[in-house]
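Translate structure to sequence.
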């Protein structure tokens, strides 16, 4: 018999830890312009999780205020406040927390590890290129002082897109043939990669996957008006 017992019933404050019948509402601090925040909204849409969205303007640098840092010392959105008044940061950690016990997070060990594999890929090999190029181009207006940085992001971004394209040529979703939070993590910045100067047209399997996700029931598009 294993020496491990895992209590999945209560959170760190002893509050029942489940998406079903939670007594209080989740609160999300975020900005829909941010792909990292949008990931959380997208999953909540698919799972019909009731929540309050508290807009924190990323372009006005609101996450950097002392008040905000009392919730996330790292000064970044998204932040999830749980019904037990715990603050959870890091978009992919939030997705794992919310998806627990749902089809968006497989229980089987290897499948679950593959979800994490893609989420770590997203944070290290995808987002730092595609999201940053998008930010420089779309939100800063490609200032001359950051043009070299913007150009340098293109190679890494295309490398990440090519890896996804190759994989999605073989299967419908990133992990197996049903949608998981790995797809949500990668969809967030991929579907707006053109705003970072990445032409997605040559990536035909990738663009089919994008359309496939957009047809799922509960899909919410990335728009501040949808927060
Ligand atoms: N690894 C973090 C990254 C979070 C992050 O970089 N958030 C950005 C918006 S996408 C932010 O809050 N930036 C505010 C700032 O740096 O002033 C996650 O996945 O949640």
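Result:
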């Amino acid at each position: 018999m294993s020496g491990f017992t895992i209590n999945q019933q209560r959170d760190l404050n002893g509050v029942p830890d489940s998406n079903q019948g939670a007594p209080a509402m989740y609160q999300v601090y975020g900005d829909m312009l941010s792909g990292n925040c949008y990931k959380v909204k997208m999953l909540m849409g698919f799972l019909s999780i009731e929540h309050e969205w508290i807009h924190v303007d990323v372009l006005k640098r609101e996450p950097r205020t002392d008040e905000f840092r009392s919730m996330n010392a790292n000064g970044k959105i998204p932040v999830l406040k749980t019904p037990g008044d715990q603050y959870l940061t890091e978009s992919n950690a939030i997705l794992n927390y919310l998806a627990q016990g749902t089809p968006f997070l497989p229980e089987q060990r290897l499948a679950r590890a593959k979800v994490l594999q893609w989420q770590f890929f997203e944070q290290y090999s995808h987002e730092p290129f595609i999201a940053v190029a998008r930010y420089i181009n779309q939100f800063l207006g490609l200032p001359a002082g950051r043009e070299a940085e913007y150009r340098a992001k293109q190679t890494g971004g295309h490398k990440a897109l090519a890896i996804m394209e190759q994989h999605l040529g073989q299967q419908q979703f990133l992990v197996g043939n049903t949608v998981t939070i790995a797809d949500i993590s990668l969809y967030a910045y991929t579907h707006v990669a053109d705003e970072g100067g990445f032409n997605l047209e040559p990536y035909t399997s990738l663009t089919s996957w994008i359309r496939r996700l957009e047809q799922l029931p509960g899909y919410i598009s990335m728009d501040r008006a949808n927060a």
